[in-house]
Amino acid sequence: MQPHDHTTPYFSNSSASRREFLRNLSLGLGAAFVSLPTLAEALPGLNKTQLGPTSREALQTGRKMGIALVGLGGYSTGELAPALLETKLCRLAGVVTGTPSKAEQWKKQYNIPDKNIYNYETFDRIADNPDIDIVYVVLPNALHADFVVRAAKAGKHVICEKPMATSAADCRRMIEACKKAGKKLGIGYRLHTEPHNLEMMRLGQKEVYGPVKRIIADNGFTMGNNRPWRIQKKLSGGGPLMDMGIYCVQGALYTKGQIPVSVTAQYAKKQRPEQFNEVEEAISWQFRFQDGSVADCRTSYVENMSQLRAEAAKGWFELKPAFGYGGLQGKTSQGPMNVPNINQQARQMDDFADCVLHNKPTRVPGEMGLRDVQLLEAIYRAADTATRISTKDVAAVLDKV
Prior knowledge:
The longest helix has 20 residues, at 366-385. Strand 5, helix 7 and strand 6 (185-187) form a beta-alpha-beta unit. It is globular, with a radius of gyration of 20 Å. It is built from 12 helices and 15 strands. 32% of the residues lie in helices and 20% in strands. The chain is of the alpha/beta class and 401 residues long. Helix 8 packs across helix 10 (245-256).
């Protein structure tokens, strides 16, 4: 199968795309992205003295790690490339695309030299290019594994968009390839460096309002009436669960600070069975944790929603919207959170670049991506069988505060 980019528009002209929906969460609230003048501000919880000498030198000299984007669809075009104009430790150095017209457009817009432009057949030659340190895979889900493995064999560090792959077996293959090559592998979980979601982690894991008893996580948008790759099971691996629902999985786990012990799930009755004939249209599930607390989650391609709420013994805290590219808002039972919105993609990529330069683990490793794919598979099994599914064999990886 010929690889292809995340393309826009995915949807009919009468409906906002997934990317536009996430962006509109911020625009509708009038939120402003914060420009990041220093790396100390760009990386949460870090200052210059906490950075390794290589990162400090890079910051002082302006020498940046080169990133090549693999796939020039909506997310690369609308979010990652603009963010790379704001990053402090990395820069857009190259692109990989199957569309010659896109290659020409990006070459002119971002002043990319011909030697740093590849197609999917010539991609492996990137091994000989010292301009490129990191490969960011932004392709349909089913193509992630092969390109991560190829990037690792080419001697490059890798960021892979979520979900990591369409099967746990592929996740393990990706992890092994990067370990064998001695290269870092990070998953594109931007919210692990986003201030509002970091605050949810802190409040939940530190039990500021007491033990969390219940989490509510909802994420979805209203899709247009055509058939983007996201609802073609061969490319996506599933429907909204593999796309928007993974944010709910993540939010529940990093707020609670625990791995669930079991899951139950149920598919929603389809409103558009002709369109969603290969994948679920909407699905809900409940994680149960060892202490008896639960996370009630929903995701959908026919409903706009974005919420992460925790109800604890002595109060509550929530984000609404919770998962968009900006405009996030947080409240607690004692009042507003008062934390800033930032350029999430810039912070995410700078954080990974710092991990490479400092030779330290990323907080979003391949093992976390494997964990989430295992949980997605468990949710589907629970819905398919209408039974409670144990999650005891899921990779025990958590982002601890």
